[in-house]
Amino acid sequence: MTILHALTSPTAAAGSVFAGVDVCREAGLPLPGGVRRPVFEDDLWDLAEVVGLPISLALQHRRFNFAAISNPRWRLVAKELIMALLAPRHEAVASLARAYRTPLHVSTSHGRLAELIRFMKWLPTHDVTSLEDLNSNDCDAYLAHRRYERDGDDIVVGERSSGTRRLAALIVTDLLNYRELFAADRVPADLRPWSGAAPSAIAEDKSGVGQNKTPPVSDTVLQPMLAAALHLVNVLGPHVVELAGQIRVADRGWSTKTDDLKSSARLPLAEINRVLAEYERTGEPLPVMRPHHIQDRIDAGWPAQDPLTPIAFSVLTRQAGFRQFHTAWLPALRGPVEATLKVVGAERPFARAATHIEKADGNGTLPWTLPLHREGATTLIGVVRTAAILTLAAVTGMRASELMELQVGCRRLPEEYGPDLGRYRLASKLVKGQPLGGTRDEWVVVHDAYQAAALAEQLHDDPVEGNPLLGRFHFNSRYQWFRDWVNGPHGQRVGLAPIPNERLTLRMLRRKLAIEIAYRPGGLLATKIYLRHVSTATTEGYASRPGGAQAELLAEVNDHEQQRNLELVLAEFRNYQEGILPTGPGARSLTEFFASIDGKLGQAAPAPKAQRSDRDVLNLLTKRAKVLHLGPANYCWFTDPSRALCLKLAGTPTADRPLVGMCDSARCPQATHHPCHRPVWAEHAERTETFIGQLGTTRKTERTRLQADYDRALRVVAEIDATMDEESA
């Protein structure tokens, strides 16, 4: 059925409660003026122009094609169900006891329709020609059909996700819950599929329970990928902007897209001679064709040794103002072109005389690119755009929908707080879990993300404020092209490290960032806020209502912190075994504890050199992990509140947690320093030295205080270095 037929095909909808309804008006979906408004009787509801739909929602998910259901009675049932899901406030829907009370999103409703179409195509194959004949056995059979993935020979090759099974169960329960709406066909009123169990229980859906199933991207992939993306954005990016400008000039002046070119059967010798003279004046090489076009000429009879065989005569003709080069002109042009060729040579038309840059691996300099044909130039621009997307995704944690909602002009003016101290913001929209149109929000980002957004604006084809900055993109294919370029001759030429051929998704990048932030002091709540994980219910519960969302949030935070602490304690125990010892006032106590654990493992091991598993070690370290608290420059082992210096200073010796913000780890007997803390102390010493140098001669008290602070930082750094030197020796 054609789209035109689908739009106008009448259905037996006269008896439906939705007969004649304007779909978008009833569902509260705004349309711009002049757009055809779908009505209930249409077999195709085109919602592509609905105002406020997220950019990430593909066009095929905005069109509801009911013509895919061949049975006209079932087609009407499908329309009535989708209309009820989109418009739950309709008086006929609001009176149903088990109907949804809030409208489903367009994308969710489209997913329901897609599953309903599958179900209604499956029913006739199992001898069900009327919904009145549907029974529990049919429901069980359909659920089993959707549970397993089968090949062309109907052999099970895998099991589908719980989400797929849940959707299959939802379709059946929807047909039961909304049966009173259906005018043409209904499931039996006494149908109780799966004994009335909820779809999530039927599908064994455990989403939201236990660990997040999205794995974080591995460091072996993240490190070379992000290094390559940053190199492309920060080093190659400015040059690629110039390259994009060259292409725009070519499009206006001499490409196949150029308007106002003249057609001519005569040889425009004078005009082409003027073009050749300009090449000689500027010293620009003549343009050459792409290799496959050169081969086409050779196959057509041009001599391979002829110096004019690779020359792009069509480019010279267009630069002269004419649309097409005719081979018959060649004899008259041979002399002038050969003369110019001897003077300036020939080269690919774009990115000539490229500026030298430092190689990514630090091994010298080289031109940032070799000369390119248009195809290679546009490919490189696309790779750099992908590098901007990867940088934004990796360092901001924005969802795909949030990245696609970025607009030209999304960069807010930087907030300067001092030399090299600024705050950068990007404006976008929250889409997930938000009403139609999304919710405007801003992300505080690092300078690299801000720079990536600026580069994307400069490479934009139409950088008018308010236009989508990145548009709708397919990440998997873009990343594949990016990785192939980095691992190919172009990326290796500029010294980029190869990226392993492993799976990478935006969710994996977001998960990695969440873990990296969360495993820092106070990081769990910071992660939830920054990544927009804190729902309204959670926030309200955390602020006032005991139990409920508050208890769930705190339990989740505690679980993550315990897992993080166990991993940190295990890492330090392994360092102890390798001779890398802690420093600080609490170092002796921690070393003695590790020695006792090592002794227990040695006694329990069946052989002197047997390596105990991490699980065995963790069992012994669990108690110490429970008292570990992370400071910005130390670990606090809060084993005895009476010895905690921070509690003594605060006058709260009976508190059950340390006051990490008041920690003086150089004096507290429960604090230790480790190699991971060295950069913090070294930076503190450097800044303190700078402050001392800026003090006037009269500020002796301040100088004395800062000098003591500086000496303490140097002492901590020296102690950490000493343990590392001993281990290396």
How would you characterize this protein structure?
This protein is mainly α and about 725 residues long. Among the domains are: about 5-200, no CATH class; about 215-405 and about 470-505, no CATH class. The protein has 27 helices and 14 strands. Strands 9-10-11 form a three-stranded antiparallel sheet. The protein has a three-stranded antiparallel sheet with strand order 12-13-14, with no helix packed on it. A two-stranded antiparallel ribbon has the order 1-2. α5 crosses α7, α9 packs parallel to α16 (about 445-460) and α14 runs parallel beside α19 (about 505-520). The longest helix is centred in the N-terminal third of the chain and has 35 residues, at about 220-255. Residues about 1-10, about 535-550 and about 605-610 have low confidence and may be disordered.
What key phrases describe this protein's structure?
disordered N terminus; single chain; mainly alpha; flat; 3-stranded antiparallel beta sheet; 729 residues; 27 helices
Largest sheet: 3 strands, antiparallel
Mean pLDDT: 85
Q: Mind telling me the C-alpha Rg?
A: 34 Å
Calculate the terminal CA-CA distance, rounded to whole Å. Answer: 79 Å
Short structural description:
By secondary structure, the chain is mainly alpha-helical. 49% of the residues lie in helices and 7% in strands.
Write the layout of secondary structure elements.
Layout: H1 3-8, H2 23-27, E1 44-46, E2 63-65, H3 72-86, H4 91-94, H5 106-122, H6 136-147, E3 148-150, E4 156-159, H7 162-177, H8 199-202, H9 219-253, H10 269-282, E5 286-287, H11 291-299, H12 313-319, H13 330-344, E6 346-347, E7 356-358, E8 365-367, H14 374-396, H15 400-404, E9 415-418, E10 421-430, E11 439-445, H16 447-458, H17 475-487, H18 489-493, H19 506-518, H20 523-530, H21 536-543, H22 549-577, H23 587-604, H24 614-625, E12 628-630, E13 635-637, H25 645-650, E14 671-672, H26 678-694, H27 700-728
Parallel strand pairs: 5-6
Antiparallel strand pairs: 1-2, 3-4, 7-8, 9-10, 10-11, 12-13, 13-14
